[in-house]
Amino acid sequence: MESLVAHVNFKSDNVIHEVEDGTPLIDFCDEVQVSLSFGCTEGTCGVCEVTVVEGRENVSRITEEEKDYLLPEDLEEGMRLGCQVKIRKGDVTLSWKKAKAK
Ligand code: FES
Question: Does 101 reside within a domain?
């Protein structure tokens, strides 16, 4: 059976990638070499903050970790923790702040 494919547009890097429905974002970010970075991978550091610009209905639901870490108004604007997000289906457009100075 052919698996369904979602399209993820990494807007900040101008990269579009196809993934199987249901794939966690963190699973393919390395592979596509986008500048979105991850730290703890558990929803507690905030390094992976990303905004779902389009297709919010096409990603997994907000987790408890995200509710704890992000402000309600940020969640309202589509901000998520990338390590917590799975791409469910269809088209999703993401943007994030590029490399912060260390
Ligand atoms: S990698 Fe730490 S919150 Fe996502």
Answer: no
